Amino acid sequence: MTMKWRGWVLATGALAISALAQAAPPSPAMLSNACAGCHGTNGGSYGPTMPSLANQSKEAIEVAMKKFKSGERSGSIMGRLAKGYSDAEITAMAEFFSKQKLHPTTQTLDKAKIAKGASLQEANCGRCHIEDGKEGKDDTPAMASQWLPYMQMQMADYLSGKRKMPEKMKEKVDPMSKEDLDALLHFYASVK
Amino acid sequence: MTLDRRSFLKLVGASAAGLPLIGRAAELMPKSGKRVVVIGGGYGGTIAAKYIRMADKSIEVVMIERNDHFVSCPFSNLYIGGVITDLNTLTIKYDKLAANHGVKVVQAEVTAIDPVAKVVTTSKGTITYDRLVVSPGIDFRLDEMKGYDAAAMEKMPHAWKAGPQTVLLRKQLVDMKDGGTVVMTVPLAPYRCPPGPYERASMIAHYLKKNKPKSKIVVLDGNPDITSKGPLFKKGWKDNYEGIIDYRPAKKVTEVDAKAMAVMVEGLEEVKGDVINVIPPQRAGQIAVAAGLVGDDKNWCPVNATTFESTKQAGIHVIGDACVAGAMPKSGYSANSEAKICATNVVALLNGKETTELSGINTCYSYITDKDAISVAGVYTVKEGKIIAVPNSGGVSPADFSATKIEAIYAESWLKNILTEMST
């Protein structure tokens, strides 16, 4: 099955090249590099309100892009941009960014909050935000070294209902105070 | 001033025939392996240079730029409006591009391109190339703006290339008496940064409203209407600057009188101002014109939609404001995106590999006030050899201004990331 499919692609690809001297369809790098003006080279962001995509989980990016595309997740320009890509292209970009090295950020963080956040993370969030948030279960986003202002804006959207929390996350977040949540985000931002 | 086609051909002919050119400098850096020369260290050039090196370290990349730094046009309107007070936040240097990626940066003026011998002549000597990427930005069509010479530019700044001109326009606004009139002229499209003039009008109005409330700004637009984000700017002006911005469409300014501090609308109407910001009609940077890269319109450089290779001269690629990129606007982000597409394909062509089809993005924010911004975004693809916007994608901010506060915040990160990309 796979072989047949591959053979067909090769055959039609060769035809297209000989007929029109066509270029190859956009590669994962071609698609993803266009994002880097806002998200940083290879997805390593230096802008505190724009998330790093480097080393993010493939599934998390796919889910985010598809939600932007459908309008389920509100963004300012991300919805408009996500509509420009097919699901296959979204997967290619997600894979590209997931393979990039973690982008360690340098941020001014509160040490006490980091310590408090570390214990909160372990007790509440660690089952999905695994390895101190360096990885995520299924489509859970990696949080390590993410920009604090970006995470704070997302948390505000979750709390206002603008962005919908997954059920399991809601169970954990609901009983927490704003101070607890802020401590958690300081912790994630600190992980390198 | 302009090297016309005939004398250019003569020059090329002379060089191709091996005749020594008078004043031709010695070879600056002998070439051993594969080499790409990049002309221009702005939004396009820096990225092309960096991404070629990221893709293939065996290719030597020489970037030639006349200045030792670059000041971003995006956000320079905020400086003019007093929202930011330091141009350093908009300024990049090239040292890390050299250190991190091995880009060889040459600070020199390019005076000629010989597409046959594949030689660039600079004020410091000649440099040979295998492929050339030209990212020269814009120059002005001064023959279409009578009286707008170098002296007039010092009295009526264009501030359409960021740097001293930006500082000058800001200073004139600060020095203007309350009750004064600012006049701004907008050229017919296409020109660098379609929403730029309207953002500038907003930023000047923001300054006047706060500091000189009896003053106003008259916008003389050569176009029949606002050329980008029109309904959004109109709403922003109505909400914030009623009675301050006097927008007059279809008023093409063709002449200036720097002594009288006046501009002429097609010889019919004279408009006087205390501060006059003349944004002249534009074309590709002078070197692209001199090298015969502009098309039939004599202004902009037609290119292949996959490789950005000039359709006028083989082996030379043109990116950024200077090129004709179909649906991609003349913006900093477009130049960034085009540079990466071009870099990928320059590397492929040098290595005899298959080229890759374009996928590009533009994102562009414009400030209305110090805390409100609007945006336009687009995704681009190629159809039948032309760059088009992907159907049913892209577009502008919500019409109800529900996102202006957050977009003003996002825009700051946009700037931080894109300037970091260009300089590290």
Q: Which helices and strands, and how do they pair?
A:
The complex is a heterodimer of chains A (192) and B (424).
Chain A lengths: L1 H19 L7 H6 L2 H4 L18 H13 L7 H5 L4 H12 L12 H15 L4 H4 L14 H13 L6 H7 L4 H13 L2
Chain B lengths: L4 H12 L18 E5 L5 H11 L4 E6 L3 E3 L4 H5 L10 E3 L1 H7 L2 E4 L2 E5 L4 E4 L2 E4 L2 E4 L3 E3 L9 H6 L8 H12 L5 E6 L9 H16 L4 E6 L8 H11 L4 E4 L4 E5 L4 E4 L3 E4 L2 E4 L3 E3 L1 H5 L10 E2 L13 E3 L4 E2 L7 H19 L9 E8 L5 E11 L2 E4 L5 E2 L7 H20 L1
Parallel strand pairs in B: 1-2, 1-9, 2-5, 9-20, 11-12, 11-17, 12-13, 19-21
Antiparallel strand pairs in B: 3-4, 6-7, 7-8, 10-18, 14-15, 15-16, 22-23, 23-24, 23-25
Helix pairs in contact in B: 2-10, 7-8
Question: What can you see in these coordinates?
Answer:
The complex is a heterodimer of chains A (192) and B (424). With 192 residues, chain A is mostly helical. Chain A folds into 2 domains: 73 residues, Cytochrome Bc1 Complex, Chain D, domain 2 (Orthogonal Bundle); 80 residues, Cytochrome c-like domain (Cytochrome Bc1 Complex, Chain D, domain 2, Orthogonal Bundle). Helices cover 58% and strands 0% of the residues of chain A. Chain A contains 11 helices and no strands. In chain B, helix 2 packs parallel to helix 10 and helix 7 packs parallel to helix 8. Chain B is globular. Classes of the chains: A mainly alpha (192), B alpha/beta (424). The interface between A and B is large, with 35 and 48 residues.
Give the CATH H-level superfamily of the largest domain in chain B. Answer: FAD/NAD(P)-binding domain
How many domains comprise the coordinates of chain A? Answer: 2
**CATH fold title of the largest domain in chain A:** Cytochrome Bc1 Complex, Chain D, domain 2
User: Could you say which structural class the secondary elements and strand pairing of chain B correspond to?
Assistant: alpha/beta
Sheet with most strands: strand arrangement of chain B: 5-2-1-9-20
Strand count, sense and barrel status of the largest sheet of chain B are: 5 strands, parallel
CATH topology annotation of the largest domain in chain B: FAD/NAD(P)-binding domain
